[in-house]
Automatic annotation (TrEMBL):
Pfam families: Glyoxalase_4. Residues 4-137 form the VOC domain. Keywords: Isomerase, Metal-binding. Belongs to the methylmalonyl-CoA epimerase family. The keyword tRNA-binding does not apply. GO terms for molecular function: methylmalonyl-CoA epimerase activity. This is Methylmalonyl-CoA epimerase. PANTHER family: METHYLMALONYL-COA EPIMERASE, METHYLMALONYL-COA EPIMERASE, MITOCHONDRIAL. InterPro entries: Glyas_Bleomycin-R_OHBP_Dase, MeMalonyl-CoA_epimerase, MMCE/EMCE_epimerase, VOC_core. Its EC number is 5.1.99.1.
Length: 140
C-alpha cells in the first residue's frame, strides 16, 4: 500500500532560517512554498531524490498561530520531526483499508496538501506515536 516515503515533516519556529540551514548543510533545493490555512502552516518542500514511484522531500513547517497542530507540537515538544508522509496510489482507498483495520483516522476524507496532493492523517496514538500522513500526488 505504501509506495515510498513522500516526505518527512519537520516542525520549526522560523521557516526561513531552517530553509537556509537545509540548503547550506545538505544542498537541498526548495521546490514549493505554500501557506495552508486549513492546516495552520506555512511550509516549504525541499527535494531530496526521485525514485521509481515518485519523489521524496523534506517538508519544513512553521505554524501560522500557536493554536494549530504544529504550534501545539512546538510548545509541547520543541522543534523536530512532526510527521511522516507516505506516498499511496489512491488515498481514499488507503483510508478505507486502514480504517477497516480499526486504526483511528484524523481525516475521514482527503484534504488539500502541498503541491496539489490529496492528503489524510492517521492518529499517532494508533500508529505507535507517529503522526502518519498518506499522500496521493497530484496527476499532471
Ligand atoms: C500530538 N501528538 C503527537 C503529535 N502531535 N504525537 C506524535 N506526533 C505528533 N506530531 C500527541 C500528543 O503528544 C498527545 O499525546 C496527543 O497526541 C494529543 O495531542 P494534543 O497536543 O492534545 O493535540 P491534539 O489532540 O489537539 O492534536 C493532535 C493531532 C493534530 C495529531 C490530532 O496535531 C492533528 O490533527 N494533526 C494532523 C494535521 C497536521 O498535523 N497538520 C500540519 C501538517 P499525550 O500527551 O496524550 O500522550 S500539514 C501537512 O503536512 C501538509 C499540508 C502536507 O504535507 O501537504
Ligand atoms: Co506533511
Amino acid at each position: 500500500m505504501l509506495l515510498r516515503i513522500d516526505h518527512v515533516g519537520i516542525a520549526c519556529h522560523n521557516l526561513e532560517e531552517k530553509i537556509e540551514f537545509y540548503e547550506s548543510t545538505f544542498g537541498l533545493t526548495v521546490v514549493s512554498r505554500e501557506v495552508n490555512e486549513e492546516q495552520g502552516v506555512k511550509e516549504a518542500m525541499l527535494h531530496v531524490t526521485d525514485g521509481p514511484s515518485g519523489a521524496s522531500y523534506v517538508q519544513l513547517l512553521e505554524p501560522l498561530h500557536p493554536d494549530t497542530a504544529v504550534g501545539k507540537f512546538l510548545a509541547k515538544r520543541g522543534e523536530g520531526v512532526h510527521h511522516i508522509g507516505y506516498g499511496v496510489a489512491d488515498v481514499t482507498q488507503a483510508l478505507q483499508d486502514i480504517a477497516a483495520k480499526g486504526i483511528k483516522l484524523i481525516d475521514e476524507r482527503p484534504r488539500h496538501g502541498s503541491m496539489g496532493a490529496s492528503i489524510a492523517f492517521l492518529h499517532p496514538k494508533d500508529v505507535g506515536g507517529v503522526l502518519t500522513e498518506l499522500v496521493e500526488t497530484a496527476r499532471l
